[in-house]
Structure formats: structure tokens, C-alpha cells
Write a structure and sequence with these properties.
The chain has 310 residues and is of the alpha/beta class. Helices cover 41% and strands 15% of the residues. It is built from 11 helices and 10 strands. Strand 2 (38-40) and strand 3 form a beta hairpin. Helix 3 (142-158) crosses helix 5 (175-187) and helix 9 packs across helix 11 (294-304). It is globular, with a radius of gyration of 20 Å. The two termini are 28 Å apart.
Length: 310
Amino acid sequence: MLFFSLTLLGLLTSCGKAEKEVIKLTGNQADPNAPSSTWKEHWFEHNQLVKLVSYNSEVGVYYDDDVPKDITWPQRTMTAIWVYTKATYGAFGQDKDKRLSVILHFNKYGGGHPSTFFDASHDYRNMIDVGSNNPWIDSTGWNLDIVAHEVGHIVEGASKGTHNSPAMAIWHDSKWMEIYQYDVYKNLGWDKEAERWYNDKMNAVDNYPKAGTQWFKNWFYPIYRDHGGKNVLNGFFTLLSQQFPTRTISLGKEYTRDLNMGEFVHFWSGAAHANLKQLALDAFGTNDEKGQDWTVQFEQARKDFPNITY
């Protein structure tokens, strides 16, 4: 589409060099489309009055008083990630909600969390809020990974106008992010970051649904490599929004329950246009985390969701 072709061309550069109309806050600049100049946190243990340091039509960046104001890479990097994410997975909210808000902290609130345009808890903004014990000088490694990770949660929790993540009970906090981030780094042309991430995740081992599971190596990467790259990732969320049980809420709809493992494999098979049962058996064994035979669930899922074909 036009927005993609005009905007993304300027962003497909090495990490930290992407450019867009970054607006620095100087003087008494009046812009009716600007995000709020301050934002008082009121969630979890967060209680800072954070301040807007830069923005454009896609991203507004807020720092607490301890983050050096001359650090500019988050604006450029998050703009590239957010534009690519929307081009791949669709819009998140109405036009007025399209901007991503990024809050960064120094020496407080270790780790990060996201929120979406569905959530009153964070004032109905698509946003990420991240704290670090380093002053955000570097635009690579953990600093890049944590902010990209949190945007991935926005995708799983709010794409296609549908709230909640029915797959999170299966892939937990980070397995979806492993393939989401690889795709982002790769398609933004951040080759060194993509290679670093790939090498790390090919060696990652988890204990769910069984000990020794390698989610990236044996499940997500083969699907991504062999069945359409970013299109298969987007296809999974499209099928969920079209076929999985939802209810209507004020800002769209939301899923009413979690997937079971057999349904998970069925929906991914639909996205891949291929029966992934054997791939799942090789990656996960026959039982889900509760010790139930997911292959029985899989056959039931094919009956319950017959419009998903492959």
C-alpha cells in the first residue's frame, strides 16, 4: 500500500541509522497532533512523571529524569520497528491510536512490559515501558532486544482488532518473540542483529511442553523458512481473529479462551498451508504441558474448525 511504499523505504537501513521526521522538542513549539508533553505513570510500581523527548507521526519517546536526553537512537529504531510491524500485521486501533508510545527508565523498574489501545490501565495507548541499569547508550544487544520484545507482545495481544493472546498459555512469555524479532531484524536489513539473534535462539532450550524443547530451531524457524516468512506469521493471527471464539467489546473484540496444544498446531498448519503435525511431534513430543495427548486435541480441532484447511 502507499503508506508502506513511501515510509518504509527510508527505514530499511542498519540499526540506529534509520531516519524519519523526528521532531525534537525545543522552545514553545505548538503542534496540535503532538502526543502529551508529560505522562504520569499509574501502573504497577511505576509512579514517574515522564517527559516527551522526541516524536514523529509514528512514535513518541518519553524518558524519566535519569535517562540522558541526548540519546536519540530509540526514536529512529522504534519508528522503524513500529512501521514495519504495522505493515506486516495491520493497524493497532483507530487513526488516533496509531502512534506507539515508548517510555524508558534508568536505574529503576528493571525489565519491561507492554500495553495496547484496548487497555484502560495505560490510558488506551499502544505503548512499551522499559527500565534498565545502563543509560541506554547502546542501540544493540539487550537494549534493542528488550524494546523489540515488548512490541511483539502488542502484536500477540492486539492484532486484527482482537484483544488477548490465546497462544500465550502455550508459548509463554518469549517463544513468539523469538521469531517475531528475527523477522523484524532481518526485514529491516539489520543483518548483524539478525545473525546474532538467530545464533542465540538456535541454541535456546526450554522445559515446556517437555524438557529439551527448542522452540525456535525445531518449530518456529522451520515454519518461517519453509512456509512464507512474515506472511505465515501474520497468517496465524489472521486465522485466529477469523475462526477462534471471541466476544464483542467496546473497542473491537476479544478472545474468550486459550488455545489447547492441538488447536495451536491446527491453526499454525492453516497459516502454513501444510499439515504440521509431524513437525510438532518432532519438536514437542505427543503430550502438552498438562500431560495430555495433543494429537487427540488436534483431530478434534480439525472437526471444530473445519474452515481451516491445508
